[in-house]
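Residues determine shape. Next comes a sample protein:
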Amino acid sequence: MDFYENTFYKPEDQKKIDPANYGKLGNRIQSLEWEYAWDEEHFDDTSIGEIDHYVTEKDFYETRRWFKERLKKPHRKIKNPDPDSDIKEYYSFRYGTVWIGGE
């Protein structure tokens, strides 16, 4: 269970799973405890790298443009608490919903 605790973000606004949405599995689903979480795609402010890490300048500028557009979409922003790190911020984009179940 620790893997799931450390892998998926659990928003404050917790939802309840509806076993009726799962047909024949509804009874089994209802017998477990469920937590609502998000599957996310993560980036940081160093994700695109340096221009000399790309085959061409065009590749670098296309990637930078893509990253800037990506940052315009809804995401969570987390400041890195380590002042000595090159990474200053992390960006987490919701990818989907995860239901974590256990007895």
Summary: The chain has a mean pLDDT of 93. The helical segments are 2-7, 26-30, 57-70. The two ends are 11 Å apart (CA to CA). Residues 2-102 form one domain.
